[in-house]
Amino acid sequence: MKKQDREIEKKKETLRYKTSKKRCNLYVKNFPLSWDKEKLESVFSQFGAIENIKLEKGKNGNYAFVCYKQPDSAAVAKANLNNATFEGKTLIINHYEIKEQRKIQIEDAIDKADFEKYQAQKTGAFHLNDLTSHPHMTQILQ
Fold first, then answer.
1. Does domain 16-97 have CATH number 3.30.70.330?
2. pLDDT over 90 for what percent of the chain?
3. 131, pLDDT greater than 60
């Protein structure tokens, strides 16, 4: 197998693995700066068995990825801990999104917004919804 083909296969395998872990992995931010892996584990382990915790230092504060062994555990942890307050900080928790898929979703949203803007300019910003939501529509039709 050629080097380029091996690299493509490796990327596909990595993407398959990330996709398989998507519902088990939580992205956690806005927790106290004093928290370390052990503190994160003590808070999150009450909802299920944890496979891995990755703590990162960012420009705007720390963030972490908490990976559970079961997706149900991640869902329960998110439901119970999202918006919970610790030491004056409100936790923000989301399911992990694969970076490549997130980029595609952002590009799609931009394309859709640009197309809607183009259509509005082309039609003079007239939409059927504007006509049907007019308060005197029944009088106009009569």
1. yes
2. 38
3. no
pLDDT at position 127 over 70: no
> Is the CB of residue 55 less than 8 Å from the CB of residue 62?
yes
Q: Say if pTM beats, i.e. exceeds, 0.85.
A: no
User: Which is nearest to 23 in space by CA: 95, 86, 107?
Assistant: 95
Confidence (pLDDT) at 137: 58
Whole-number Å distance between alpha carbons of 42 and 26: 15
Do the beta carbons of residue 41 and residue 47 sit within 8 Å?
no
Q: Give the span between the Cα atoms of 17 and 12, in whole angstroms.
A: 9
- Taking the C-alpha atoms of 39, 45, 47 and 51 in order, what is their torsion angle to the nearest 10 degrees? 120
Which amino acid would we find at residue 41? E
Task: Give me the phi and psi of 127, to 5 degrees please.
Answer: -125, 150
